[in-house]
Amino acid sequence: MKRTIIIGSRGSDLALWQARFTQQQLATQGIESEIKIIKTRGDVIQHLSFDKMEGKGFFTKEIEDALLNGNIDLAVHSFKDLPTQAVSGLLIAACSYRETPFDTILINPNAADAALPLNLKRNATVGTSAARRKAQLRALRPDLQLTDIRGNVPTRVAKALNELDAVVLASAGLERLKLDLSAFHRLQFTPQQMVPAPAQGVLAYQIRQSDTELYPFIYALNHPDVSALAGIERSIMQQLGGGCQQPVGVYCTKANNHFHLWVSWANTEHDFPKRLFLKSSNKQGLVKTAVSVLKQTDAKRVFLSREASADSYFYRAMAQRNYQLYAQSLIDFEAVPFELPTPFDWIFFSSKNAVHYFFAANPKLPPAVKIAALGSGTASAVRQYGKTADFEGSNANPQEVAALFAEIAKNQTVVFPQAAHSLQTIQQVLKNQLIVINLVVYQNTPAQQFTVPPADILVFTSPLNVTAYCSRYAILPTQKVIAIGHTTAAELEKHQCSHYILPYMPDEISLADVCW
């Protein structure tokens, strides 16, 4: 191509990084280009939050107008900022690779509190202007004080040191700009904690439909897998009626020919979001099912086999759906006196109950001992006792968590607080790779006297709860059955129940995500 391509870009540090990255991509094809900076309405109006600004395309419309008018040849957008409604005469010719699509919270060290969720002190002031983030933050931590922040990425980052307790930003921008973040406590959200914006972390390359000369060169930059997943995410947002500034989060991945989808949807930033997790091999069915489930208003009855207080995430999530929740453990618990062995290197907790009964006895842990937790729920329980897990499993499969733990604790001595009749799933995997010490800290037996009302959804949180329930009730084919993990699922199989589903992770939020 002989002509020099004019790239339209906003003037922020991140936008210019994106434009220069695109220049480099074009240069590999022998195409020369120049960058033309264009101010958008979102750049000019800095005193209003997004929900106070009318219309859509706050960061894209002026660039698209320049493209239509022929003042530029190529627009480079953060795909998450681009409205889902196509502009006549323009097309998205390609999508870039996907940078880390999640959100990150940067915490002022003076506001950090490892004992609380998100490692953030109570009633902390957190800056973000995205309604999607606000709705999800309020669901995770209702005590947080949220405030709008505007400006480029470095400006917003600085506010966490001189004005606020923390700020939340897209991880992609932080990674692309390679800012020095050593002054902060940094926590990257998982999609189970906060669902990203549709197409977050992706660049969209937009040209005129009539520019057939440029099209093949831009299309050569396309990442088809990224484009397909971003298309699913944006399609769901469009069908939910949300724009890029609405409280809608959609994130989709694909592994082993199956799509994994998370959606968070609220009417306003002050509403508790309706969420779901869905796994499917059918792309079209995935979108249709997700939208249908989120829009359904049918009231359902849910049984959860453990207690849930009115301020718990699960209770509030069920209330948002107008579901009737009956939460009761079907197990009787009793503390068992114990003495800590010496010496040992690690203590590994595989359940919240193990955490509770261990620390309730006020044991004196040697300072050098490290703590491991099977998953995020168990790690959260550890934080409630003022401790922090040095290892936290990030997979729903105990065998895979054990394999990861073995890599860092091989040949070391590990204490496992447990129930008297624990299945010892983790220990069985690790017994030949490290020194296992099983420490009984509580006794659990199936309750003898209980009543469970009829339910449409059964949520089992341990194998013993399955045993207790099935001693008195039959599981019906019409009931939706959820098993918190693989050992609980195995117990369901013993009772001829095979129509269960597993959450993505064995934690409270993931359980709520599949209750629909």
In total, the number of domains comes to 4
CATH topology of the largest domain: D-Maltodextrin-Binding Protein, domain 2
Mean pLDDT: 94
Strand order of the largest sheet: 16-21-20-17-18-19
Rg, Cα atoms, Å: 25 Å
- Percent range for helical residues? 25-40%
User: What's the overall geometry?
Assistant: globular
Named CATH architecture of the largest domain? 3-Layer(aba) Sandwich
In a nutshell, what does this entry contain?
The chain is 30% helix and 24% strand. The protein is built from 17 helices and 24 strands. The strands form 5 sheets. It has a 6-stranded mixed beta sheet.
Task: Tell me about this structure.
The protein has 516 residues and is of the alpha/beta class. The protein folds into four domains: 5-98 and 202-222, Periplasmic binding protein-like II (D-Maltodextrin-Binding Protein, domain 2), CATH 3.40.190.10; 103-188, Periplasmic binding protein-like II (D-Maltodextrin-Binding Protein, domain 2), CATH 3.40.190; 301-330 and 447-513, 3-Layer(aba) Sandwich (Rossmann fold), CATH 3.40.50; 332-446, Rossmann fold (3-Layer(aba) Sandwich), CATH 3.40.50.10090. It contains 17 helices and 24 strands. The strands form five sheets. A six-stranded mixed beta sheet has the order 16-21-20-17-18-19. The chain has a five-stranded mixed beta sheet with strand order 2-1-3-10-4, sandwiched between helices. Strand 14, helix 10 and strand 15 form a beta-alpha-beta unit. Helix 8 packs parallel to helix 9 (283-295) and helix 15 (463-470) packs parallel to helix 16 (486-494). The longest helix has 16 residues, at 224-239. The protein is globular, with a radius of gyration of 25 Å.
